[in-house]
Amino acid sequence: MRLFLDANVLFTAAHNPGGKAALIIELGAQGHWEISSSLYAMEETRRNLERKFPQSLDGLDTLRHNIRLVKHRIDLPFPEGLAQKDQPIFQATLACQATHLLTGDRKDFGPFMNQPENTFGIYIQTVSEFLSCAS
């Protein structure tokens, strides 16, 4: 399995190292699955941490060592109706051939969650949903 982490999952993992998002990365480092994200998501995460929880930036740097960063490809598709700000996230998910996109963004990704038939075969889930299905 190859997981792609959205910026809000990275943010949560850096800010709450004992939580489920950090567990996803830890289990990936142990070889349970591959962890990827994008330069775009990492930069968004860094900006938000600098603004809200600058003390968590070191945690992000530590996590970064266990995450493969990819670029989004503008030539790749995305689900019709996906917010423009999330299109690079989805395109990076496709670019790294992820099986799952993990996000906490129910507002924009909610209509596409758990519908791989509408998302080019990718399961879009929250961290909790993924962990429930993976166990």
Offer a concise description of the structure.
By secondary structure, the protein is of the alpha/beta class.
Plain-language structure description:
There is one protein chain. Helix 1 crosses helix 4. This protein has a single domain, classed as 5'-nuclease (Rossmann fold). It has seven helices and five strands. The model has no long low-confidence stretch (mean pLDDT 96). The chain has a five-stranded parallel beta sheet, sandwiched between helices. The chain is an alpha/beta fold and 135 residues long. The radius of gyration is 14 Å and the shape is globular.
Residues in β-strands, percent: 5-15%
Poorly predicted spans: none
CATH architecture: 3-Layer(aba) Sandwich
Order of helices and strands: EHHEHHEHEHEH
Content-based structural category: alpha/beta
Number of strands: 5
Q: What's the tally of helices?
A: 7
- Main β-sheet, spatial strand arrangement: 3-2-1-4-5
Which topology does CATH recognise? Answer: Rossmann fold
Task: Give the domain tally.
Answer: 1
Shape: globular
Query: Would you identify the CATH H-level superfamily?
Result: 5'-nuclease
Write the layout of secondary structure elements.
Elements: E1 2-5, H1 7-15, H2 20-29, E2 34-38, H3 39-52, H4 57-64, E3 68-70, H5 87-95, E4 100-102, H6 106-109, E5 123-125, H7 127-134
Parallel strand pairs: 1-2, 1-4, 2-3, 4-5
Helix pairs in contact: 1-2, 1-3, 1-4
